[in-house]
Amino acid sequence: MINDRPRVIHLTKRAESGYDEGRAGATITPGMLIALNSSGVYVPHASADAIASPTFAIEDALQGNTIDDNYASGDLTRMIHAVTGDHVLAILEAGANVTDGTKLTSNGAGYLQSGDADSDAVAVALEDRDASASDVTLEERRIRVRIL
Prior knowledge:
Layout: E1 10-12, E2 18-23, E3 34-36, E4 42-44, E5 55-57, E6 76-81, E7 87-91, E8 97-98, E9 103-106, E10 112-114, E11 123-125, E12 129-130, H1 138-141, E13 142-147
Antiparallel strand pairs: 1-7, 2-6, 3-4, 5-6, 7-13, 8-12, 9-10, 9-11, 11-13
């Protein structure tokens, strides 16, 4: 575990930020970018480089759970509807290597990836993070981001 890492997902918030709850339609890890699907359940955001509402699963501290405890399909899932300027502890896709200031988009599986100038960025990296090693852990893929 990286000792200086936060243990919450929503790091800073604006008054307009909103917390919400909904049923999970798949396994969801706190820090994942999630979306409401046509069945009315939340799943990892499934469209790479597509417009994404900045909705992130957060830890279920009310049940004594941490950022390390996944939600199972059917679980009541806590989330944040982040707004511009919020800081979130999100998760990079495996294999990513980004630097502070890199724009990030959905990778189509609930994680963030480096975006390009023509993509729909949801956040910007607030730190360097190298998750390119083959043995990188989920904890090492967590990254502080600012919502755009």
